[in-house]
Backbone:
């Protein structure tokens, strides 16, 4: 058995840590020696209202068991730099950022107002941007950082009534993928989780016997592992639920090359070859870069010119 992963000396910020998944993370980090900023504005599932008790109760629980934590009540949307300031003022550094705070405003796309769309994007995506951006200079300077963005199966696959949520959640994937590239040489690692767990977010959606299997404590081990200093994993997306953990990655079909002149590269030519464009059976590729960054893209262009 390997030795216990310690977070002694590390400062961890968990957003939305007054309940649900975030609370479990905060308690577990504190148990392992981290100093924790417990951020939560204490609102409803839809994002309305404020209640300091949500964060205070978690801080109280951590302190009672001998851990170190401080509360922050700012909204991640608009409050990102204040949240980091709380970490710096109390603990002098920031090592780990868990972008976890979230709300739902589910409604079918036909009925979704611009406000309902923007509010959800604002909390999930802009909130993660703000907090990560405020923490970034400290991470660059200390040449260490770990960031987790919380996506969702809804963001990876889409979900009825969740156009706002799904768009924000997939945005968090793009954000983490880019931070992982910009942060790599500073040992700043960014990953994405797409969890399914019992919380107030799922209690009205899933049946009780399923919820029983999906305790949020089954999500925390991956979050802690990915943010430990010994873990070098970055730029990865993990789907997890009820004790099952898997990785998600993109797949590109082998594709079809067309001679790029106006006689041959037409909508009709694409229609004719639609099957090959979408054929994943012959050597599908697992891209981690845009094709223009791939050496073999030049080969493709050369081949196309020679057709
Ligand atoms: P939750 O509602 O129990 O927890 C979310 C917390 O975020 C709440 O305590 C809330 O007060 C806080 N919060 C909301 N808006 C905030 C803001 N603007 N600033 C600061 N705090 C704010 O839900 P949860 O299930 O624990 O969700 C945690 C994260 O996991 C969310 O991002 C959610 O979208 C994501 N997620 C959850 C599931 C699931 O199955 N529970 C599935 C996929 C994704």
Residues:
């Amino acid at each position: 058995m390997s030795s216990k992963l310690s977070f002694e000396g590390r400062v961890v910020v968990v957003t939305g840590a007054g309940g649900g998944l975030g609370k479990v993370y905060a308690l577990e980090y504190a148990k392992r020696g981290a100093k924790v900023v417990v951020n939560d504005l204490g609102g409803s599932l839809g994002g309305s209202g404020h209640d300091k008790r949500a964060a205070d109760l978690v801080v109280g629980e951590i302190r009672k068991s001998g851990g170190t934590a401080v509360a922050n009540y700012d909204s991640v949307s608009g409050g990102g730099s204040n949240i980091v300031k709380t970490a710096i003022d109390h603990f002098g550094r920031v090592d780990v950022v868990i972008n976890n705070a979230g709300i739902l405003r589910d409604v079918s796309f036909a009925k979704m107002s611009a406000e309902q769309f923007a509010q959800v994007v604002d909390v999930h995506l802009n909130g993660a941007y703000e907090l990560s951006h405020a923490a970034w200079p400290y991470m660059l300077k200390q040449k260490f950082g770990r960031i987790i963005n919380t996506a969702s199966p809804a963001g990876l696959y889409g979900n009825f009534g969740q156009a706002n949520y799904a768009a924000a959640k997939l945005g968090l994937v793009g954000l983490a993928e880019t931070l992982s590239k910009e942060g790599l040489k500073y040992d700043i690692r960014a990953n994405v989780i797409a969890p399914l767990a019992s919380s107030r977010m799922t209690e009205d959606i899933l049946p009780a016997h399923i919820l029983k299997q999906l305790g949020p404590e089954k999500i925390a081990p991956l979050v802690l592992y990915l943010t430990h200093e010994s873990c070098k994993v970055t730029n990865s997306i993990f789907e997890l639920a009820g004790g099952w953990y898997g990785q998600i990655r993109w797949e590109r079909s082998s594709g079809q090359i067309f001679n790029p002149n106006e006689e041959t590269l037409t909508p009709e030519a694409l229609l004719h070859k639609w099957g090959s464009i979408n054929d994943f059976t012959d050597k599908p590729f697992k891209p981690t870069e845009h094709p223009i960054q791939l050496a073999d893209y030049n080969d493709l262009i050369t081949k196309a010119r020679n057709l």
Remarks:
- The longest strand covers residues 188-196.
